[in-house]
Write a structure and sequence with these properties.
By secondary structure, this protein is mainly alpha-helical. It contains 18 helices and six strands. The strands form three sheets. It has a two-stranded antiparallel sheet. The chain has a two-stranded antiparallel ribbon with strand order 3-4. Strands 5-6 form a two-stranded antiparallel sheet.
């Protein structure tokens, strides 16, 4: 067992700040940009840095729950999270049944295919247990964080601003690595890539152009994160929110994404641009639609002018840009694309071979999100996730219309595009979206909806009269306590 530098920083920090759970969530968002690092190495496995503040947060909040602490918005939170919890229950049950039900009847791609080099017969394996554990932790964290963030003394928008700050950190790391690859500036590889469970692709090039992966394991993962930062910041800027340095984050994240030369990133951005007018029309605001149109026109003009300047000042860049464009356009002819496509086709074939039930969570690893979900949790689980997504999106849009611009609405406006961008990128090149920072974004969205529901209830005379008959905070004997500070006093 070894503790890398990231762990030497996070473990003492989280221990000192354990009594301040909100700070743990801020730390988690910043630690989430280090997925290729490890806070603790156990043999050939590495504990992701975000797991340290997440476990500290969950231990404190669960201790509060044992002491009888409850939150006003928890009923709304549980109602919104119920479809997801039901899907998780089905997933855990299926991971125990399906590998035994279809044992030695179908061929699957194992979680670690490097050791076998191909498909193997389905059988119960350690992947079922490990992936179930990760899923349980993620689900528990989602529910606890969403309930905790409904507290009235928490500024939810500050957590979103930390999310944007993590985008600036990734942009800075991208520029740092680019300077390292081009000019030999020292770059701490051992700090960013200390997780032995990841195959880090930090030396790839696209012709003469280095492919940048920053603190992630590969350029595509970095581009996926930058895509969600870009889409989120663009949308809040178009909405007119005055968030510090958000306007500058748009071109900065776009430039960093270009440095990755990732086809996943380019396709994600193209789909985001197509979704902008649709989202503007869905809001019913003609002014917002005009802002989207102007932004697209100005962006095209700036791109054209910038291209002319670069061609004039540095004509040697043109062949490199042509090579990157050609390699991106011909990506479908590459061997890696063919291999990933074959894995996805094999995964989709498992749906029919298992009669739509799937082979169990952790039994098969696809190359993209939809084949990965359908082949493991089956049609039942996929439909459950669609129900959860649709209910959450509908509740977010309804909550957005109920209140004027403010902290909760800012979180809704910023988090929804980020989640959409992450799902688009995962649908292209990632089998799961299991990072804790993704679940924290969902928790922030759920909490924002619950807080708006509480605000509207406070302004409804009928509901005020109803709450006047039922004590908001019951006695300690009824296992409830008032929650307004990090150290709640339990009143007898």
């Amino acid at each position: 067992m070894t503790i890398p530098v990231v762990g030497l920083i996070l473990f003492p920090l989280c221990l000192l700040l354990w009594m301040r759970p909100l700070l743990m969530l801020h730390i988690l968002l910043l630690a989430g940009i280090l997925p290729a690092a490890a806070a603790l190495v156990l043999g050939g496995l590495g504990v992701q840095p975000a797991m340290v503040p997440a476990m500290a947060f969950m231990s404190f909040v669960m201790l509060q729950w044992v002491m009888g602490v409850h939150y006003l918005g928890e009923r709304t939170v549980m109602a919104l999270c119920f479809p997801f919890v039901a899907v998780v229950a089905w997933t855990l049950l299926a991971s125990m049944i399906m590998p035994r039900l279809f044992m030695n009847q179908v061929m699957v791609w194992p979680q670690k295919s490097d050791s076998v080099g191909g498909r193997v017969l389905l059988a119960p394996n350690f992947g079922n247990i490990s992936q179930d554990m990760y899923l349980l932790i993620n689900t528990l964290f989602l529910v606890l964080a969403a309930r905790f963030l409904t507290r009235s003394d928490i500024r939810l928008d500050r957590l979103y601003r930390t999310f944007l700050l993590s985008g600036w950190c990734v942009v800075g790391i991208c520029m740092w690595q680019f300077a390292h690859r081009i000019g030999g500036v020292p770059f701490p590889d051992t700090f960013f890539y200390s997780n032995p469970g990841w195959a880090v692709l930090n030396t790839q090039t696209a012709g003469p152009v280095p492919r940048i992966n920053a603190s992630f394991s590969e350029p595509a993962a970095c581009a996926a994160f930058l895509g969600e930062i870009l889409f989120s910041s663009v949308w809040i800027v178009l909405q007119g929110y005055s968030v510090a340095r958000a306007r500058w984050l748009v071109p900065a994240s776009a430039l960093a994404l270009v440095c990755t030369t990732s086809t996943t990133g380019f396709i994600t951005v193209a789909m985001e641009i197509c979704l902008l007018p649709v989202a503007a029309i869905a809001t019913g605001s003609m002014q917002l639609l005009g802002n989207v149109t102007r932004m697209i026109v100005v962006g095209i003009a700036l791109l054209a002018c910038g291209g002319l300047v670069v061609v004039t000042v540095a004509p040697q860049v043109v062949p490199a840009a042509q090579f990157v464009f050609q390699s991106t356009a011909e990506k479908k002819d590459s061997q890696s694309y063919q291999d990933r496509s074959q894995v996805d086709r094999d995964s989709m074939s498992l749906v029919g071979e298992t009669y739509g039930l799937g082979v169990g969570w952790g039994s098969n690893r696809a190359s993209s999100l939809l084949p990965g979900l359908l082949s493991t949790i089956g049609v039942v689980g996929a439909i459950g996730l669609l129900v959860f997504d649709w209910r959450l999106l509908r509740a977010a849009m309804a909550a957005r219309r109920r209140v004027p611009p403010g902290p909760e609405r800012l979180v809704i406006e910023g988090v929804v595009p980020a989640l959409v961008a992450r799902l688009i990128a995962a649908s292209l090149s990632s089998p799961t979206v299991g990072f804790l920072d993704f679940y924290l974004l969902i928790a922030m969205l759920v909490a924002a909806i619950a807080r708006i529901d509480l605000q509207c209830a406070a302004m409804d005379p009928a509901r005020i009269a109803h709450h006047a008959l039922v004590p908001v905070y019951a006695t300690a004997g009824q296992c409830h306590a008032e929650v307004e500070t990090d150290r709640p006093q339990i009143h007898a």
